[in-house]
Amino acid sequence: MSSLKTNITLNFINTITGIIFPVITFPYAARVLLPDGIGAVNFFQSIIAYIVLLTSLGIPMYAVREVAKYRDDVEKRNRVTIEITLLSLILCMFGYVAVWLLGEFIPQINSQLDLFYVLSLVIFFTALGVNWFYQAIEDFEFITVRALIFRTLAVISLFLFVKTKDDLLVYAFVVVGSTVGNNFINFIHLRKYITFGRIDWRKLTVWVHFKPASRIFVYNVITSIYLILNTVMLGFMEGDSAVGFYTAGNRLSHIVLSVVASLGVVMLPRCSNLIEMGRTKDFSVITHKSWRFVIALALPSTMGLILLATPIIYVFCGKEFFEASSVLCWTAPVIVFIGLSNVLGIQILYPQGKENLVIWSTVGGAFFNFVLNCLLIPVYSYTGAAVSTFIAELVVLTIQIILGRKYIPFPIFEKIYLNYLLASLLMSVGVLLLVLSITNIWIVLSASVIVGCIIYAGTLWIMKDSLLQETLNYVCKLLKR
Fold it and tell me: InterPro entries, alphabetically (predicted)?
């Protein structure tokens, strides 16, 4: 089993490439397929995504915890893996009933049925792919290498085979190819760990996993509704342009958030295994370090996005989206709120079987988000939606802290966190001086990133921050290899 640091590094690489590849491919695809083609694919993908959500039933997160519990008991681990895979495939059949019904009775889908059916391949291969198994046993090297290979193949295929707007079906195969390829290899690679001939199929209890997985399903459904609530309400109340401004600012903050939140993917299986083994002291140590790491990464990221909101929007979205700067300023702190609530929910409460607390916190956030949207969107439009997001995510974090405090194995507030706050404030002063003195947007953005990183890291170095020292030592070891 790889070290936790190695797993974090590999998952970080996987997350970053997952961000970079769409940035490379989407501009090309948009110019070739034009708005109608891109719109058709995205529309069908959204429908397929909801079918996958319904048929997955919360299994991916549940399966990571269950397989990680029995990681050292190979016979039980393998039996649980087969049971959950069979349950996924059974539920997948209901997904294709939904695909057929939609294809037959919805005119917008029926008119491009071949495209819809191609994109629906994701449903079957998601059920078959057992990606959760490799997360649970912490084989992040396999996950990362496999993902890089298929993402690279997808990019090459796009540039080679998608040449005109008539290549829409080819583009659909390219889009699903990465998912299909990844998950097919996942299943084939499973033979390395499980000898199917040794499984006593008569003793399998497939449906025993249905009820506990359905609890996670409730959380996933609430979260899914919650995430699209602002966009839907903005669209009905303010129109497409307001949605565009909100999407631009919110998406940029979530790109940074995805890097911070990726830690949870690595930590969940390790935390679940430690709880099952009764190693509460080790569980406390790694969750405490994870909490501290998120604070150290999220605070400067948040302040940097707020100070550089205008040049960032200009560089990544264009001058037409300047008004989205206010959205980015209000959604940037969400990086801190969601980053910490992920540590509490995914790494601490969920491995201890306290998923109901996570569900209630999400319900609370969704309620506040809806009410605030009703009050703020008519007055402040997309900025009002961003303010609603800010408050709602703060509510989620607050509820988790209040309800789950007795399950948190370390002090939430410590003096050492002031190191990161002070370093972030000093960094902000340096960046603000650059913003006020340099008029060229490209220069101010690049200079601010470099100077900001130097000030932040330099301040922590002077303070002899142990987390920085540990990170630098690990990086040096990697470079020496």
Answer: Poly_Biosynth_Transport, Polysacc_synth
Give me the pLDDT at residue 265, please.
52
Which residue carries 């071949």 as its tokens?
A: 114
Kindly give, in sequence order, each residue whose CB lies less than 8 Å from that of residue 27, ignoring residues fewer than 6 positions away: none
CA distance 336 to 359: 19
Alpha carbon distance 327, 445 (integer Å): 18
Round to whole Å and give the CA distance between 306 and 385: 17
Nearest to 82 by CA among 224, 171, 166, 208: 208
Quote the distance between the C-alpha of residue 345 and its chain's center: 14
Q: Whole-prediction pTM value? A: 0.70
Residue 18 burial by Cβ neighbours in a 10 Å radius (0-12, 13-18, 19+): middle
Quick check: 447 and 436 in contact, CB under 8 A?
Answer: no
Whole-number pLDDT of residue 30? 66
Domain boundaries, the chain: 1-204, 219-414, 417-480
- Which residue blocks in 344-416 are alpha helix, DSSP H? 355-404
d(CA 164, CA 155): 16
What was the pLDDT predicted at 117? 92
SS3 454: helix
